[in-house]
Amino acid sequence: MNPRFIFLPFNALVGAIMGAIVGYHFEPAAMNQHIRTCNLRALWSLFQKTNLPEQISAAETNLGPLTAGFSRIRCPSCGWRPTPVARWVCTNCPQPENFWGGCGTVWNTFTTQAVCPGCGHSWRWTICPRCNKWSLHQDWYVKQTEQGG
Asked: Which of 12, 36, 97, 102: disulfide with 91, CB 3.0–4.6 Å?
């Protein structure tokens, strides 16, 4: 008996369950790509430095002119403010972006107005590394009235 034949019903079952949970159907190849992407995201998060306020060092708070352009950027959900050293990855993103052409480029999304320098994809959504919530990229920019000026 072909060993691949044994796993086909299992893959179909997992695909059906995943489709019911997240609201769309995975083909086996797409499901494997999604699992690899999730694994890479998890691995990437291990190398990310936490940005909880109580863990920010004095040296990081004295970035001066480097962070001047970032003073009006914050996560709409939790208020976290990115610095120039914060990084995002261009990867497949089924929800909410519905984007499957991730190129793997690592960059600061706020230096390019959410346009990937590797593939040119214009990201509509940005995830916060602190609270892991997605928000429209334009909502990250604080308006003058919100900032008090």
From this structure: 102
- Looking at the structure, do residues 131 and 87 belong to the same domain, yes or no? yes
How would you classify the pairing of strands 88-89 and 134-136?
unpaired
Cα–Cα distance list, 121 to 41, 65, 74, 108 (Å): 19, 29, 22, 14
List of residues 6+ apart from 77 with CB closer than 8 A? 128, 131, 133, 135
Is there a domain that residue 66 lies in? no
Decide: helix, strand or coil at residue 115.
strand
What pTM did the predictor assign? Answer: 0.53
Classify residue 70: in a domain, yes or no. no
pLDDT greater than 50 at residue 5: no
Q: To 5 degrees, how large is the angle CA 33–CA 92–CA 13?
A: 40
